[in-house]
Amino acid sequence: MLCPHCETPVLAAQRPAPAGALCLQCGALLPPVGLAPRLLAKSTQLARFGLADQADPILKPSDHPTGST
After folding, report:
1. Is residue 60 exposed (0-12), middle (13-18) or buried (19+ Cβ within 10 Å)?
2. Which distant-in-sequence residues (6+ apart) come within 8 Å of 45 by Cβ?
3. Contact at 8 Å (CB) between 30 and 8?
4. Left, alpha or beta for 17 (phi > 0: left; psi -120 to 50: alpha)?
5. pLDDT tens-digit readout, 40-69
């Protein structure tokens, strides 16, 4: 694995915790192991219900008259 900030190789043995570990070179917070597959799975799940689509939203705001009441 590479540090996302300085691209220094980080060995799994150097990572004491699955989350919240720091890069020994630059001190950047390292992402948890397996983060990319979890994000992809969540994005796929949201897209299944139309919640992750970058197109027009499913629900649109209603048109309220701007005139006086």
Report:
1. exposed
2. none
3. no
4. beta
5. 899 888 888 877 766 666 667 777 766 555
Length of the chain, in residues: 69
**C-alpha to C-alpha distances, 27 to 3, 18, 19, 67, nearest whole angstrom:** 10, 16, 14, 57
Query: In whole angstroms, what is the distance from residue 17 CA to residue 22 CA?
Result: 10
Residue 58 contacts residue 52 (beta carbons within 8 Å): no
End-to-end CA distance of the chain: 62
| pTM listed for this prediction | 0.44
Count of other CB atoms within 10 angstroms of residue 14: 13
With a CB cutoff of 8 Å and minimum separation 6, the contacts of 14 are: 21, 24
The secondary structure of residue 49, as a DSSP letter, is: T
